[in-house]
Write a structure and sequence with these properties.
CATH class of the largest domain: Alpha Beta
Shape: flat
Strand order of the largest sheet: 4-3-7-6-5
Strand content: 25-35%
Oligomer: single chain
CATH superfamily of the largest domain: PPM-type phosphatase domain
Number of domains: 4
Mean pLDDT: 83
CATH architecture of the largest domain: 4-Layer Sandwich
Radius of gyration: 42 Å
Low-confidence stretches: 55-62
Distance between the termini: 111 Å
């Protein structure tokens, strides 16, 4: 008799065990065969640590910890590798050797276990040091002993120089001097089944299948919940559906069953399901027949969906349809009047001022909700003194009161400016108007007088953001001057500022609707405005249009911009 058995561990063959008997050998029972295979594995451990005389290097021996990990890995249901450190002569870690692969291991490249076992990790899987940084994480586990866990990690392997990726749950842990590396490839079928289950739960859909030959009926958990029945109770056959529905729906259910069972065509119906707990649910059922090769009806499968919320929504819509029809004309008339008032107060376009060596442009963007007439206003006009009045303001609030107060302030400032007073004095008088003549509203404003002859701008502000000066490729707000918002006190004084403008300078006045955000501070929004203003080329009109286009404001508020460009 003669037996030759490969001597190997972890898929790596180290030699061959040959046993010879002096006499003919009858067929041996499986117990004897397993004993011979176990003897071959013991021989493999010996060959693994065997050093040939005159050999160049001693093969790495199996550490006791690694041997225990091999047994542990073989008992796992998931693919697993046992790794041991591969050190240089100075004891520095160079790589990890794949000491053992368990029986669940499947190589992405299709290589047998024997070609992977015993190889270095980076030689077998060079992509481990790439995008996922898997090798670095294994190094950290080896250095610190702290295990690493990750869900849905991308693993990449090279197959004929083509990278193939998979998604897996990863576990890396250190046991003594060895590393146990376990991964579980994402089960697409289970994931889709879970996704379908959640979709049915969120959509309140219950599925069923009824075998018409055997009478066997299968319901999922959601369908028992829709019917209000315990899962231990028998499912309801389709033919018994009228007994569980409202009597007034018998005709619709009869048509559904006749189409499905007699004509053998897909069908659907909506009905009121009367549950054992006394609750009535509005249900839509859809089903299709399954026929055999001879055209006989075998099975019916379909789904029930709870459409109660949709039904009551339709009822509520129907109940309010008459009311909406009654108020639609009133709402349309109110919006039309509000829009007309807004356009009368603040025209969407304004003819440019005719001034030598000075370009003036204005922009007004109303609030997104047309019925909210805002309190933002602007003005740009040449005074009899040939000075140019530039101003923007913002009355607190919305609606007709804010709009009428804005008209009072805008027209009052125009009239006061004819007196030749400076911007500080104009705001002092305007504060008195706001306090006494507008019903107690408050407002902010910035007012400037520009002299084209000297290119000097005198300005003052009442609780408003300072103008922005754009010079070359830099934009910055003018140094702030003090000034209380309009209407807060009966009398107030306003400090004036003065700036000498130069050719090609741009000056911008704006309301807070251009920059205001609910989730950002004013300083952050102002920084974005300065960056946008400084990097916008072209004409003054293009600059203002782009400021509106790239505004990050998210509040439902008006926006006014007045800009000048010195020629």
């Amino acid at each position: 008799g003669r037996a030759a058995v490969p001597a190997g561990t972890g898929g790596r063959v180290y030699g061959v065990l040959e046993i010879v008997w002096p006499a003919p050998l009858p067929p041996q029972p499986p117990q004897i065969v397993r004993q011979v295979e176990a003897l071959a594995e013991l021989c493999a451990h010996t060959l693994e640590t065997y050093t040939a005389p005159g050999g160049p290097a001693r093969p790495q021996r199996v550490l006791p910890d690694a041997a225990e990990l091999m047994d542990l890995a073989d008992g796992l249901y998931d693919p697993a590798l046992v790794l041991v450190p591969h050190l240089d002569e100075s004891g520095n870690l160079l790589d990890f050797r794949i000491q053992h692969v368990n029986s669940r291991f499947l190589d992405p490249a299709g290589r047998p276990r024997g070609m992977v076992g015993g190889a270095l990790l980076l030689e077998a899987y060079p992509m481990a040091a790439g995008e996922s940084e898997l090798f670095q994480r294994i190094e950290r586990v080896y250095a610190t002993g702290e295990p690493f866990r990750a869900r849905r990690m991308h693993l990449t392997a090279l197959v004929d120089q083509v990278p193939l990726s998979a998604v897996a749950d990863i576990s890396v842990s250190r046991h003594g001097a060895g590393i146990l590396f376990i991964w579980r490839i994402e089960d697409e079928t289970a994931r889709l089944a879970s996704l379908l289950q959640h979709a049915q739960r969120l959509g309140r859909i219950g599925g069923f299948e009824e075998n018409l030959l055997t009478g066997e009926i299968t319901w999922n958990d959601q369908l028992f919940d829709l019917y209000g029945r315990p899962e231990t109770s028998p499912p309801v056959p389709l033919e018994d559906l009228p007994a569980h529905a409202h009597p007034d729906d018998a005709v619709a259910i009869g048509r559904f069953l006749r189409t499905l069972l007699h004509h053998r065509r897909p069908a659907s119906a909506a009905f009121r399901l009367q549950r054992p707990d006394g609750v009535t649910r509005h249900i839509r059922v859809v089903a299709e027949p399954v026929l055999d090769t001879d055209g006989r009806l075998l099975t019916v499968r379909g789904a029930y969906q709870d459409i109660s919320a949709q039904h009551w929504t339709e009822v509520a819509l129907a109940a309010t349809r008459d009311q909406l029809a009654h108020t639609e004309q009133q709402a349309s008339e109110r919006d039309r009047l509000a829009l007309q008032l807004q356009r009368a107060i603040m025209p969407p376009t304004q003819a440019p001022l005719q001034m030598p060596d000075l370009d003036v442009a204005v922009r007004y963007r109303p609030a997104e909700a047309e019925q909210l007439v805002g309190g933002d206003w602007y003005d740009a006009v040449v005074l009899p003194s040939r000075l140019v009045l530039l101003c923007v303001g913002d009355v607190a609030g919305h609606g007709i009161e804010a709009a009428t107060s804005m008209v009072v302030l805008r027209n009052a400032l125009r009239g006061l400016a004819v007196t030749g007073a400076g911007p500080g004095q104009l705001l002092s008088w305007l504060n008195m108007v706001t306090h006494h003549l507008t019903g107690g509203v408050t407002a902010t404003a910035v007012c400037g007088l520009y002299d084209p002859a000297t290119r000097v701008l005198r300005w003052a502000r009442a609780g408003h953001l300072p103008p922005v000066l754009v010079r070359g490729s830099e934009a910055a707000p003018l140094p702030a001057v003090s000034g209380l918002l309009l209407g807060a006190l009966p009398e107030a004084r306003y400090e004036e500022g003065e700036v000498q403008l130069a050719a090609e300078d741009n000056l911008l006045m704006y309301t807070d609707g251009l920059i205001e955000r609910r989730d950002r501070s004013v300083e952050e929004s102002l920084t974005h405005l300065l960056t946008t203003a400084a990097t916008v080329p072209g004409t003054l009109d293009q600059r203002l249009d782009r400021l509106l286009t790239y505004s990050r404001s998210d509040t439902d508020d008006d926006t006014c911009i007045v800009g000048i460009r010195v020629g």
